[in-house]
Amino acid sequence: MNQTFDASALDTSALDANTWLSQGTALFVVGRFEGAVSRFDRFLKTHPNHSEAWTKRGYALHELGFQAEAIASFDRALHLNPKDALAWHGRGVAYAKQAHYQEAIASLERSLKLNPRDHKAWYNLGYAYNCIYKYRDAVYSFDRAVELRSDNYHAWYNRAISLASLQRYEDSLHSLNRTLQIKPSCYYAWNYRGVILTKMARYSEAIESFDQSLRHREDNPEAWFGKASAYALQQDVEMAVKYLYRALILSPNLYRVMAQTNPSFDGIRHCQAFQRLLH
Q1: What pTM, to 2 d.p., does this model score?
Q2: pLDDT (tens digit per residue) in 10-42
Q3: What is the C-alpha to C-alpha distance for residues 216 and 225, in angstroms, rounded to an integer?
Q4: Which of 64, 110, 260, 266 has the most CB atoms in a 10 Å sphere around its CB?
Q5: Could you give all domains of the chain from N- to C-terminal order, each with its CATH number?
């Protein structure tokens, strides 16, 4: 008697366990994180002491936004292999996502002791230091990041923020210029460059920088507000009100409050045109 082959009758549980691991890895690479977690879970049922799988599972959970679960997965990996630099790194990033920056820094520093050439870990460490206002430590971390990967425009940009927070405006401007050499379309770096130039009273250059930002993203209230600030500091009421109006159209609640409190507008706050716009 002839029998036809029914593929649906295959028992998927008979798949070799390594297939679950390789499938999970492949799904993670293409951004299918839920599928990746389920494959790693199937693998770990039969290989519960496989530290690499726990680490990969942690990264997939992190991408899904399940930070507590990710940390638990990284902890399992580190219990099995305390020298897993990637697990320490992932644990640090997950803690940073929860705004637990001291824990994040401790984990990232452990990762970097094991792998001091991980430019991403140096970047993430700098970011965590920025979040707790330890700007000198942040600059040091970003310096290490760009030494290892000079085209990391995110590191150059965040380095600029740290330097500006230390009132090292020339150095911050240099860092922003490097950011924009690498990624000329980075509209928020153009914005921040305009802010720094405004602080340095280089108003025409600041306005040019905000204009560059707007060329890359027109629905950009921060740039319109920046232009308004630069004109207000020059006592140009007409232009300040014109550009503040553009910011208010895009984000009325935020920029109304900012215009009412930002000292850049102190010199024109008494002007009727300014007062009418905000009321």
Answers
A1: 0.89
A2: 344 545 778 999 999 999 999 999 999 999 999
A3: 16
A4: 110
A5: 19-101 (1.25.40.10), 207-279 (1.25.40)
